[in-house]
Amino acid sequence: MKRIRSFYLLIFFSFLQYIPGEEISNGLLTAEQSVDIALRNSPFSRRIEQQYRLTRSGRYDLISPVLPQLSFSSGFSRFGAETDILIDPVPDLPASAQVFTVDEYRTLFSLFGNLFDLSSFVLLGQLNTVDEIADNSLRDSRAELALNVKESFLTLVTLHNEVHVAQASLAQSEEQLEIARELLRLGVIARAELLRLETNFIEQRVNLIQASRVLENSLRGFADLIGVDPPVQIDTVLPFPDTEGPLPSLDSLRVLVLERNPGHRVSILTEENQRAAERAVRFRRVPTLSGSFSYGYTAPEMFTSLSQWRENDFWSIGFDVNVMLFEGLSWRGQRIEAAAQSQIAQTEVEISVNEVIQQLDAAYADLHASREALTLVPDLLEAAQEEFRLIREQFRLGAASALDLLQAQLTLNQAQLQSVSIITNHYRTEAVILRLVGEW
């Protein structure tokens, strides 16, 4: 295993590319560092935080109905008119009278609250559920963002490798072209062989240009994803995965995922919330008791001293019992709607279980397949490199055609690309399993 690991590490060190720009944290970004930066700086992370606050704000809708309400009001009013009028109490003997205005200053403090409302009390019991939904939704969104960053990072590693392979192929094609020109001069090969190699050289240049352009665009997208200014640099050296340690059993992973998957937890908590909402609707027919208390001041003029306030203050206290005898059909409609929402939430839990288990089973199968493929990587690369070395030497001696040489080079390029794909797929599968348990 040590031979395999050191062999493949040497290959990956050759894939290390430098992208111009300022270094982040005095070095190349690893996948873990990229995830940490994204969780702090990414606009997607800020949106996740705001969504978390929005979800938690629902707790105030549950608390508000059972808390008393305190209000203050103050005002001035004037009644009457300031005009003289004529009255005629005795015929032929008119008399006049003055109508005065009436001023009133009023200041009032009012306290009102529900003393007994079973429906509101049922919903109040869901405060912890709302908080848990917000926490699990936050973790689920963060785990999803982390998975996206890791997948984007591994894609960049693959693109870096494609650029390296294109560069190496171009250098090999140039060397082969020089050899072919010398062989043509010596009359060992025909001109058609040289033209075939010249065409391949041009194709390799085009491949390098296209691979570099795709890599550059992907790096910009990666910078936007993690919330930093481009350009960025990434560390493309990946350690060879451990293929000797035992894998956890699929059954134990299923139990762990169903316990810790935040998305599944949200569906369970949402179902609990909907059941409470259904009970709250039924309890709206239970009589409610409310109380009120008012204290204030009223007089023709505004108070200027505490004694004046005491001479003109007043208070009142009251209790109300509200029994809903008939409210049309709205209550029945609300009950039907609440029951349907509860059934939908229960179905969502079942769907969530199936989706999570299917994703885990697929990832676990991919993990097994990648482990088997990893053991073949060193032999695959060694065989392709040896074949290319032999065909190149034969071509130099005139014992192999240009077509044979190009085919050997293509086989080597495909082996290098496939090897990196096996490595990145293994890490991608591990990231998917971590995301399923709400980790990153």
Helical segment tally? 13
Structural class, by secondary structure, is alpha+beta
Strand content: 5-15%
Within the largest sheet, what's the order of strands?
1-4-5-6
Largest sheet: 4 strands, antiparallel
Q: What global shape is seen?
A: elongated
State Rg: 40 Å
Q: Report how far the terminal alpha carbons are from each other.
A: 27 Å
- Helix content percent band: 55-70%
Contiguous low-pLDDT stretches (5 residues minimum) are 1-26
Order of helices and strands: HHHHEEEEHHHHHEHEHHH
* Total strand segments: 6
Mean pLDDT: 87
Description:
The protein is elongated. β2 (84-90) and β3 form a beta hairpin. Residues 1-26 have low confidence and may be disordered. Strands 1-4-5-6 form a 4-stranded antiparallel beta sheet. The protein is of the alpha+beta class. The longest helix is centred in the middle third of the chain and has 60 residues, at 127-186. The chain is built from 13 helices and 6 strands.
What keyword list fits this structure?
single chain; 440 residues; alpha+beta; four-stranded antiparallel beta sheet; two-stranded antiparallel sheet; 13 helices; 65% helix; disordered N terminus
Layout of strands and helices, then pairs:
Layout lengths: L1 H12 L17 H11 L1 H14 L1 H6 L5 E11 L4 E7 L2 E6 L3 E15 L1 H7 L2 H60 L4 H36 L23 H11 L1 H21 L5 E12 L6 H7 E10 L7 H45 L2 H20 L5 H35 L4
Antiparallel strand pairs: 1-4, 2-3, 4-5, 5-6
Helix pairs in contact: 2-3, 2-6, 3-6, 5-9, 6-7, 6-9, 6-13, 8-11, 9-11, 11-13, 12-13
